[in-house]
Amino acid sequence: MLEEKVQDLVDEIHRQTIVVEYFRLRNLIEQSPEIKALRKQLSDAQVALSLSFVDPKQHEAKKTFYETLLNEFNNHPLIANYESLKSELRDLLKNIAELL
Description:
Blueprint: H1 2-15, H2 17-31, H3 33-51, H4 56-74, H5 77-99
Helix pairs in contact: 2-5, 3-4
């Protein structure tokens, strides 16, 4: 009986528009060549930034480049929408948990 009610709740949560959209966006992000390339560039820029501490001028240039890439990544429509939905979904799940 309890297990059945829990499964009903899980099923209902999975049918919510916000949950469906969250998983759709997550899938699009995981499959996006553009996002994969941006992640690789970010990773490479972060390594280069870490290795540039000995030269303040080079470090500042690497930092600026990294911040530009990070801004481009965070403002990509898929990422921005995903992060917004993720926050809304977290709030929804928190509210459900509090009700239980």
